[in-house]
Amino acid sequence: MRGWRRSIRSFPKLLVEEGILSEGLLIRRDLSEIRRDKAGLFEIPLFCCAYLAEKRASSLWPLTCFGEREMLHALISTENRDSGDLLQRLIRETGQFVLERVFSTRPTHYELGRALNTLRLDVVFLDVTKTERAESVFEQIRRSDASLPIIGFSTETSPKVSFDLGGVLEVPFSAGKVTRIVRQAIRDSGLSNYPNVTAIMPAKAGGGATTIAINVAFQLSRSFRKKVLVVECDLQSGTISERVGSRPGRSISETLECADVASTLIWPQHVFRKEDVDFLTTKRATPIRPPAWHDYMHLLRFVAGRYDHILLDLPDVVTDATAEAVHAASSVYIMTTPEPLSLSLVSQRLADLEAAQVDRSRVRILVNQWQSGNVGLADLTAMLGCDVAATFPNDYRAVNTANVNQSFVDSATRLGKACRAFSATLSDEPDVPASSRFGLFLKPLRMNSASHVGQRG
Predict the structure, then answer these.
(1) Phi, psi of 357, rounded to the nearest 5 degrees
(2) CA–CA gap between residue 168 and residue 10 (Å, rounded)
(3) How far is CA 32 from CA 24, 27, 48, 64, in A?
(4) What order of strands is seen across the sheet that includes strand 167-169?
(5) Domains 69-191 and 195-430 share a fold
(6) Would you say the pTM of this structure is higher than 0.85?
(7) Of 49, 196, 278, 396, which residue is least crowded by CB atoms under 10 Å?
(8) Where are the domains positioned within the chain?
(9) What are the pLDDT digits (tens) for 383-429?
(10) 71-93: average pLDDT
(11) Domain 195-430's class?
């Protein structure tokens, strides 16, 4: 046993040196995916996988060898080896990219097509120094994927490009410039904007944003039969698991780490289900590696096509990572209470969203713990400078009962009805009680039966 272990001690390094596998991502942490490069059908023997897994568990191998860090996946196409090498160094310097393929000469139609069809790419870097040759590569990429961001680069000053790139990286190159241009190109491509994603954030911690988020999700599922996911974005202080009395096998921080290969995950290990609502929550006790902006981008890209509605339960502070989640949402709601301190912080949250490049037209206000004696909604809208979308009554008894029972607010309570009304707005369906809905279903049957009776008479 020791013999074969010693014989493959430098196995990963050998594969990289031979050009068989890309440096940086050799084996995923779950060993479910092998990054293939020049040898498309090459597979690592199972006994090697077992050995490498053991080494990973004992932390004797560097994290970069196993792709522990979720990253952006890129391809470079250039005919200038020097500029290609420079760009590769800068990309590695950012710490946010994995170079899946580098073409140092003009790729053939087959080589490029094979790369586009087999690799999960987030961005392509295309050398545009030779414009006509670059345009043919550009057109092939566009035929394969119309939305894949393509960043042009050149060592020449202000290269003349006639085709529509996601951005152009001009000299002098820098790691920061690479990251900024790619992030903006991904946003502009529409790959990070989803009509079924809704974000709810508090103006002030303790304003009830989480309570409203989970109960609106419950009403979307129960009253409107929607498939719903709630994502807890407060990794350090989230309390959803305690509120609903369940906990997933893995924390959302672990899910974010491997979100770029989410399709390979055993999804039920990452979510738990309560009353037909799925939850991605934090464990808090798990050591937290601060997520990057592209972690949320990959996660939302995966779940957006699998759920009717995704509700993001955000903390009150917008970080660089959560800014991407907020930007991806079609609607962003700031939760406040009528108390002066909470209302005064709404302007700060609006400023945070503006800094995250969230269009003000997508932002609305929700008022929790609303009472009839509070200031009028029209006056509140004028004071906050933003439309008030909905109010939720101060129903302490209903919330306390739900928390004690580790369940959702009763639909028959004032707060339950308000959550159902707001969920009707999100689902773009009329708020029809279940009994009335059943009556509407029976009405055509009754009319049809009456007509048959009349015909018989």
Answers:
(1) 65, 35
(2) 39
(3) 16, 8, 14, 16
(4) 97-103, 72-77, 123-127, 150-153, 167-169
(5) yes
(6) no
(7) 396
(8) 1-67, 69-191, 195-430
(9) 899 999 999 999 999 999 999 999 999 999 999 999 999 999 999 88
(10) 92
(11) alpha beta
